[in-house]
Amino acid sequence: MGDEGKLQKHYAAFDVFLKKAKAKFEARINGDFPSTAKFEDFKQMQTLGTGTFGKVVLCQHKKEGKYYAMKIMEKANIIRTKQLVHTIAEIRCLDSFTFPFLVGLDYFFKNNVYIFIVMPFVNGGEMFYHLRAARKFDETLCKFFAAQVIMAFEYMHYMGIIYRDLKPENILVDIEGTPEYLAPEIILSQGYNQSVDWWSFGVLVFEMAAGYPPFFAKDPMKLYEKIVSAKYVFPTNFSKPLKNLVTNILQVDRTKRYGILKAGVKDIKGHEWFKTVDFDKIFNRKAKPPFKPSIGGEDDTRFFDNYGDVKLRTASTCEYEEEFKHFNM
Questions:
Q1: Which of 47, 68, 119, 143 would disulfide-bridge 307, Cβ 3.0–4.6 Å?
Q2: Which domains does the chain have, with CATH numbers?
Q3: Residue 178 pLDDT
């Protein structure tokens, strides 16, 4: 079977998968959402990362012995930053996702002070870590990672979800190797849709292959000016097909941006740059990874910075009980 025939077969099979996945997603996301564990079920190991909306810690389930990544969000901070609706949506989506290239939800619970989301521990680390170490990826590895991101976006978009936060820091690499990103329409306060995800995908592909993003400037206003005018320069190592693909995705005019035209994602999957990529093999995890992180064990954290011990606040009464009553537990 030729390349075009393989691609057409993939389109048909993936479309069948998405339709079945949509039914599962809708049944799950609108159902009851009870607590499935409690904080005392887990042994806290070390803090893996911190951010605006909480911290992520490595933990071990005391009974089953399996390691997880636990996201801990303080209820007071969620209320202060007006992120309650967003947090509920995030948890429900994580719980409803069933896709090989998206991190799902294993356990969820709360206590008097915090909300806890327990997810698989993907100990290969962030793509950002490996990209920083390698300086840039060769195009074979770029295609391998890009193909997985494409299918993850297809899945989310089919479920009615727009991601809006694609960047190397938010892509995890498993043991099998499996603000510069703002789209112009967000900066210009225009209405947006799935187009913003494909723009950020173009930025990601550029950064993987170049080792730096297409748009950068110390002054935020100058950065925004470059983005809204799509001013960037290709490195000399970019192949002609790669340049063509990036050019067609990083289009300020959304009527010309690949990913959201009449053919949709087929403009990207069927592009010459992906000619050697077997999407079916990658989706079914049968493709040989061009890169595998060296992992010493399930609890190996070498690809994560150590932020020290886990320190949590306690309270004798339940904080914001009324606000979090929608968490049906």
A1: 47
A2: 32-123+295-329 (3.30.200.20), 127-283 (1.10.510.10)
A3: 75
CA distance linking residue 184 with residue 227, whole number of Å: 6
3-state secondary structure 167-202: CHHHCECCCCCCCCCCCHHHHCCCCCCCHHHHHHHH
Q: Which two tokens stand for residue 267?
A: 């403009």
pLDDT in tens, 270-301: 999 999 999 999 999 999 999 888 888 888 88
pTM for this predicted structure: 0.89
Which amino acid appears at position 141 of this protein?
L
Q: Render pLDDT for 63-82 as a digit per residue (tens, 0 to 9).
A: 999 999 999 999 999 999 88
Q: Which among 165, 267, 278, 305 is annotated as catalytic?
A: 165
Q: Is 71 annotated as a binding residue?
A: yes
Lookup: tokens for 253: 């005019």
Widest pairwise Cα distance in the chain: 66
